[in-house]
## 1
Amino acid sequence: MSTRDHGAVATSAKTPSRRTRVNPFLLVVLTALWVALWGELNVFNVVAGLLVAVGVQVLLPLPPLRIDGRVHPVALATFIVGFVWQTLVASVVVARHVLSLRTTPRNAVMEVDLRSESDFILTLVAIVTSLIPGSVVVEARRSTHSLFIHALGVDDDEAVERERERVLRTEEQLIRAFGQTITPREPS
């Protein structure tokens, strides 16, 4: 085998084939979602779901997601318990605002600069923040790793700081849960 052949082997090994683009886990999830959307479990829906799932993965491949670190089960369980607690407390607060006819809650849009440069952590923090009642991410800037959050019931600067700290605590818990490291960044 000549060196030219070795180069061809190395090049083809780096290029993903159509077969390696199909993720079996994603195949099962997308097929289950397809069947759930049709609301009926039958052979036709399962086969159609499999074909759609393969087609989506081959024609619209996702970019590779780099996750540095590993999952820490205890930290993940701690995060989940904290998330459920935050959701319950926020639900009561939002219900109180809705049921209070005398006052209109004040809102705020704030910028939170995350400490991690991980896109994975940025995405998770944005999702978790939006799932907690009374707060929603209106913009996420990948270039500065910052989130712009609309929060309900924020009356003063102290409440803004409490909300910002809550988001940063969420980021810290997710970093611990997924074994990420915080890379110090220059202030933007």
## 2
Amino acid sequence: MLTYVEENILRKQVKAPAVYLATAERHPWLVSIYERRGYEIFAERDHDGEKIVYLRKILDETLYRIIENKEPIVSN
């Protein structure tokens, strides 16, 4: 179901360049599941004594690079 949502809803319909999520480190199996699905950790923070892990999966590399200003926008 997650693959369907990522590809058909977020990428094709919403045109989202990436998807972000957060999970508590105390759920160690969640982080590894998301990493196997292509998510990467981009930040970790402490929230009320609990470590929160932030993950990102890029769905459209070209659009992501444009939005994040990692590549200049070419105009005609």
## 3
Amino acid sequence: MNGISDVMSAPEASGKGGASQLMQAALQDMYDNQVTLSYLAPFAFSYYRRFGYEQVFDHVTYTMASDKLPRISKNTENVQVKRLDFSSNTDLLKSIYQQSPLAQRGGLNRADWWWDYLPKKFANRQLAVAFEHQQPTGYVIYERTASEFIIYEVANTDIESRQALWKFVTKHGTTAENFIYQSPVADIDFDLVDEPYSVTTTVQPYMMARIVNLQDFLEKVSYINSS
């Protein structure tokens, strides 16, 4: 996969077709380099549709008032959740991420440099890691403001770690007015929530993608022939 980012031009150069030429050149470079897919976050969906891109990913935000948080009482004594420094502990997260839905369903394999970049880009974010028998089995990346507890990423390799991480989150119920989960997938499970009606869900169109090399895509991706 190759991405398109930071698209811009000088004001005096706008309207002369330069951006379109650059897009065509970028797509040709991807094809020549045997790149299968291209992703981007659009400033305008209609613009990128001219180059074969289409909206394929949604951004989902779940919001719950702190007084509606569930009480997670299930015993998770085999799992210990620890707050750790985000910038110096990303190595613990790599295998967990790779086994989670975050790396599936069109997700990305994060290179080492990307893991190093994440805490630099998001300096205000904090990290809690679940350990089972001294092995990392889950994590949550979050941020706290004066009125909000915002979850940006949560992943786990087993049910107990999932329970322990969400129990860690709900224990902060007295520290914020609202709890917000910025989810990359829309099929979150609400089995831990007492009353799912108490969750406000907002779905927004997000990322676009296009196939760069159709033959390569069909050879690499499993699909069902309905004929």
## 4
Amino acid sequence: MISKKEYQEYFFKKIESAARDSEVLSAYLDKQFKRLDELTGTISQAKFWIVFPEVLGIDAKLTLLEELIRFEDFSTEELIRIVETDYRTYFKELCGYDLKTKTKPSLIFNVR
């Protein structure tokens, strides 16, 4: 992804192609992108350490939603609940750590 527009379009296309309640998912994406816009608009040297973990959190939510959307066992509301619960550990698991393992000191594991 080289632009904000491409990033957003990617996730909207994924939910549009899923056999799901796209209104609920579109509203969820809109909320995440609105917050992402707010955060990126405030990034400065002084605020970077405060803002960046939340930016990572939004990226984890979007990516986790995109991965889970294909599982038909969950309703749309359940998917969003799972995403909102599990996004903080997404990168940890993606990097091969289990939830009990202590991670290396990295920004990627400091998700809010």
